[in-house]
Amino acid sequence: GINAEYGKQWYQRRVRGVVGLHGTELRYGFELEGVPHICPCGKTNSMEHSLSCAKGGFVYMRHNQLRDLTANLCHEAGCKDVTVEPRLLPLTGETLKLKSANTANDARLDVSARGVWSQGDKTFLDFRVFNSLAPTNANLPIERALLKHEDEKKRVYNERVLEVEKSTFSPIVCSTLGAFGEEATKFYRQIAVILAKKTGQTYQTTIRYIRQRLQFCVLKTTVASLRGFKGTKCTRYTADNNDINLLYQYNNLTHVF
């Protein structure tokens, strides 16, 4: 059909090259070709440094694009009250047991939605895309690294969401190599169940569709961290009145001749 043919062409033009070249570099740790030896931040460049460097805003981009994609998937599945960066209710005398719990009155999470686990109930999500090549993660099995980051998120937000919001909390954790944590896997499987029921597709087709979108989102933003521009920003040009007057005069002359 038309959609299948379009998808095939899109894959050939935009995805196959990225997966074939940069995906291989990431998965097997090959040396990057065509990148400066010194990062614009002044440190020696490497694959591990490129994925952690704050220059260029690529760390935030990885997080935000996965957040926005997940919010869109909730919309597609028919969840209600889908909100990006929802504020948490302020504490009104509640005492949280964990010292690591976030008690700020202006605290926010990344996404909230109703109807994920049951009708009307609210679910809060918070995202983390961690660099699996960083020294704090590289020496751990990927399962333990994922669990460690999930537990960190839970210690900060889970108690407050349960006790104050009377809602559920799911930490959405994945690595830059595309491995997702157990909590994230459960959440996306549930979204697949809801979406399959809404669209009439099979669960297998729907979960494959969701996984492909998630994997390409992570891969695309990870490759941007490796290849994206991290130098000094270009100075934005602002036309003053003299420039505008000259432009008008030029336009008038060209119309005359």
Q: Can you walk through the features of this model?
A:
By secondary structure, the chain is of the alpha+beta class. 54% of the residues lie in helices and 10% in strands. The longest helix has 27 residues. The radius of gyration is 23 Å and the shape is globular.
Summarize the structure.
This protein has eight helices and four strands, in the order H-H-H-E-E-E-H-H-E-H-H-H. The chain is α+β, with helices and mostly antiparallel strands and 257 residues long.
Mean pLDDT, rounded to whole units?
83
Could you tell me how far the N terminus lies from the C terminus, measured between alpha carbons in angstroms? 53 Å
How many DSSP-defined strands?
A: 4
Give the strand line-up of the largest sheet.
1-2-3-4
Labels describing this entry:
257 residues; alpha+beta; 4-stranded mixed β-sheet; 8 helices
Q: Layout of helices and strands, plus pairs?
A:
Elements: H1 2-28, H2 47-52, H3 58-77, E1 80-84, E2 111-114, E3 122-130, H4 135-138, H5 142-165, E4 168-175, H6 182-199, H7 203-227, H8 241-256
Parallel strand pairs: 3-4
Antiparallel strand pairs: 1-2, 2-3
Helix pairs in contact: 1-7, 3-6, 3-7, 6-7
